[in-house]
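From the methods appendix. Each design record in this collection lists the tokenized structure first, followed by the designed amino acid sequence. Records were kept in a plain field format so they could be parsed without special tools. The example shown here is representative of the layout used throughout.

RECORD:
FOLD TOKENS (103 positions):
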């Protein structure tokens, strides 16, 4: 198990995406209704970086071909993606946001 620290929860704005590299992958977080959600920063259609896309409420839109995902559960909301987005557990300890990656 690994932890990625994303800093203080107060520094993460609603409707913004913050991405960090983790090995060969990138992991992103976003705040929606005061909760933090973490997901793999790669579209399941063709690996486009989702942090370059747009986010509205809990829906992120891929910048390349427009697939949409619900960041709260990874579900696909619009094609051409078919596979759900990987999502990760988030822990907040002393206001510090940590994403847990199971090995
Ligand atoms: S790479 Fe995201 S929709 Fe094609």
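DESIGN:
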């Amino acid at each position: 198990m690994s932890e990625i620290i994303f800093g203080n929860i107060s520094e993460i704005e609603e409707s913004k995406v913050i991405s960090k590299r983790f090995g060969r992958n990138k992991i992103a977080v976003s705040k929606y209704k005061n909760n933090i959600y973490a997901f793999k920063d790669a579209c399941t259609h063709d690996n486009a970086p989702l942090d370059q896309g747009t986010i509205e409420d809990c829906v992120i839109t891929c910048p390349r071909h427009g697939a949409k995902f619900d960041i709260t559960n990874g579900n696909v909301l619009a094609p051409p993606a078919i596979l759900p987005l990987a999502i990760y557990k988030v822990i907040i300890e002393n206001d510090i946001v940590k994403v847990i990656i199971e090995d």
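APPENDIX NOTE: The beta strands are 2-8, 17-22, 25-32, 35-40, 54-56, 59-61, 68-70, 76-78, 87-93, 96-101.
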